[in-house]
Design goal:
Layout: H1 3-10, H2 12-45, E1 49-50, E2 64-70, E3 76-83, E4 89-91, E5 97-98, H3 101-113, E6 115-119, E7 142-148, E8 151-158, E9 173-178, E10 185-188, E11 213-218, E12 226-229, E13 239-240, E14 247-249, H4 252-259, E15 269-272, E16 284-289, E17 293-302, E18 305-314, H5 325-339, E19 342-345, H6 348-354, H7 358-361, E20 362-364
Antiparallel strand pairs: 1-6, 2-3, 2-7, 3-4, 4-5, 6-10, 7-8, 8-9, 9-10, 11-12, 11-16, 12-13, 14-20, 15-19, 16-17, 17-18, 18-19
Length: 370
Amino acid sequence: MPAALRSIWENRPLRNLAVLAAATLVAVIAATIAVVTDRSSVEASFTPHPLFEGLDTQLDQVDRIVYTASQGMRGEVRIAMSRGPDGVWGAEVRGGYPVNAELVKKTLLGIGELEAYEPRTSSPDWHRNLGLLAPEDIGSAVRIELFRGNERMAGLLAGKVPERAVDVRGEGLIYVRRDGEDQSWLARGRLPLHKTVAEWLDPVFVDIPREELARVTLWGGTDNPVIIERASKEESDFAIVNMPAGRATRGAPVVNGVATALAGKSFDDVAPADTLDLPENTPTVFFDTFDGVRLTMSMGGQGGALWAKFSAEVDPALAADGADSEAAQARADALNARLGAWVYKLPQDVGGQFTQTMDLLTREAGPADL
């Protein structure tokens, strides 16, 4: 035995330390081999696969989508969307009002392309931890169902999005299980998970561009209207043109804010037009464009909210010189086709803008206004 090794062997503390180091090294090597072997075993035994085999080739046959989510002790909310004969998808609970086509597309493609990436628990006792407890059990999972007529083509329970929200390829990850099965999966894909009808509705509303808007009249048809207008498209600011003597405007930002209150805005909710009866003296707003279109908005209250009906027509007397009457008629027809059959719940700030009176929009004139 070499002298150096003999010296270590004869020194009991050093000998014990050497034996411990050797044992630790052996344990580390064994653990590494075990992990590598186990990982190889898992990788060899499971290959990611579509959650619904063959569904991606049948998506054009889907004609109904149903989302179900828990509302706690209030039960469940069901959002059913059907494809009409014209191919447009509508929300059944809103009389068939068009839903966001992009969200429908994302739902169909999302489920059709969803991939079981890694297996997770098959024990129902652990479903809640993954957000996969069913809505009827007051769970947080969202049930998504695809139908072809009365045939259910796919049923999915979507749960939590893990902290590692994307995989190595940058694709989305989510916990899921097929409806009726206990086996859960970490799936690869993305899905819309909106739980209210309003989030699904087509957000397109009154799309009159600011540059086309010539005049807005509050309290139209009454003895005390507020007329806000600009003479040409080149003028950036609107002005109150029927200001009473002794009054002054509260400033261009206030007046412009009223005139353009609908620009870029959507609505809070919608219902068929025949569900709301408006009184004769209901607040009315006129929106006039430079090409002669008048959009009339009549407002009324229901359930503590302000709802609005719309109708459009062409009035040549409102048109600027050289206006295209055919384009004006096309605009009016498009507005009536989209808005005419419905009443819209206005955002609170929008309703507040359009119910202001002359006294609220003006102030007593001072020396600086003379």
